[in-house]
Amino acid sequence: MQNKNRNQQGYKIKKRSLTTWLSIGFLSLQCGQLYASDNLPDLGSPDLVEYDLQTEQSLGRAFTQALHTQFDLVQDPEILNYIRQLSYHIASNSGNKRDFSFYVINNDSINAFAGPNGVIGIHTGLIAKVDKADELASVIAHEIAHVTQQHLSRTYEYNSTQGSLNSFATLIAAILVGMVDPNAGMATLMGGMGMNMQDQLKNSREHEKEADNVGIQIMYEAGYDPHAMGAFFGKLAKESQFNALQVPEILRTHPVTLSRLTAAENRAQVMPPLKIRKQPNDLTLIKLRVAALDKKLDQVDQRQLTSDERCYLDNLNQLTAKLSQNKFKKSADKLQCLQQAAQKDLLQPLYSTLLIERLQQFADRHYQPALDKYLAKARNLIEYQQDIWPTNLAVRVRHAELLEMQNESEKAQLRLQDGLQQEHNHYQINNYLAQFARRHHQEATANYYQAQAQVAIGNYARAKHFIEQAEILNKQNQEGISQKINYFKAKHEDKLRKPSKPD
């Protein structure tokens, strides 16, 4: 009977709206208190019933679709690659073999969240705020711990067994309201939850304790300073103590208390000393890219930047500015220091990829002198770095762009297709292939790759639309991709026949 009820609940889960499931994903972050302890309650009791794997995967697909349709996702390959490489490294040290998906949300609030089936989001505001990679790692490790400890499924099971699905819906509504106005969100929560609110808060606090404790262990195993978690939250609390109206979102979802900070530090103290690692400047350059994304480059404090980092900033400014023809020609002078920085540190590809972005800018404006001077050098650099970093999304994309600039379209396409071996980049790579095909007036092929991109995020309704368009256009334009289309339709036949309702 218990399994039957659980399956019925799972069926109801699949029928709920994507917005509802998006809000559920934020549940693990709300109303909690973040602190670590060695004397944690046993949340893994053998009689605990959680929703099944199939249901969780369905939730994950719905959640992912919602992210791609309702949120401003960052597609910048440099930022996305940095967060994913960092996050997958941390996740690989969690002792959990499950799949994770990491996304960057273009939102200047200092926050992060964990959703169903290992979907984790990082706000650009958080990236901009951290001073060290260890601080960023501490937040990511905490969110990974929410997933590995199955807190979302436990919250769902708790509410289901308590017969409080209506109250659960109220909590979800409060979370959505609270994302815009925390005071209004709390009012909604208080008005709808009644006596059950205390149980909800207790359940959430227990999860936060465990996520903090496990997260500190995970980041230590990944080689990051375990003291960074308490230090980062303490720094945020100190900065906002005199202005309640500017409390970072992450402190509202993870309230800082003295006991939390003390417990986190105590937990870190029992870890054996870490070998000091030289910090690369990846984070500094990525923060500059985030500032460019948010049009805040003029707010960057240059006093702490090295000469190479200031060169990177200057070229980002040139890339994003609307330059007159005269200023545009003068901006070519900025390329020299960028090339020198790239050659100085061959293991740092961010200088090379920005150099290629800038050269694309000159190619678009048909300014040949800059291309003649730097294209060959840029190609040598990016080919070397492609060999060193074969899974680096930014290196692969910029390499393909450079090949296209040099009229080697077939090689560029193959370079992108090789990137499909990394499953977590399927959505981005297929979208780049679609853009590539469209630039070459191959509309059927572009729709085919867009269908592949939608499959990568589980949106089969959109995938069906694009593959049908690809089939129609292929018959009209004779692009010769009938075999690919037929294989796609056969591979996904069941899901394309009755896809979930699109957004």
From TrEMBL:
Q: Which Gene3D superfamilies match?
A: Metalloproteases ('zincins'), catalytic domain
Which cofactors does it use?
Zn(2+)
Q: Which UniProt keywords apply?
A: Hydrolase, Metal-binding, Metalloprotease, Protease, Signal, Zinc
Where does the chain cross the membrane?
A: none
Q: Which GO terms describe its molecular function?
A: metallopeptidase activity
* Pfam families with a match to the protein in the record: Peptidase_M48
Please name the InterPro entries in this protein's record: Mito/Outer_Membr_Metalloprot, Peptidase_M48
Q: Where is the signal peptide?
A: 1-36
Where do the Peptidase M48 domain residues begin and end? 91-267
**Record's protein name:** M48 family metalloprotease
Instruction: Say which species the protein is native to.
Output: Thiomicrorhabdus marina
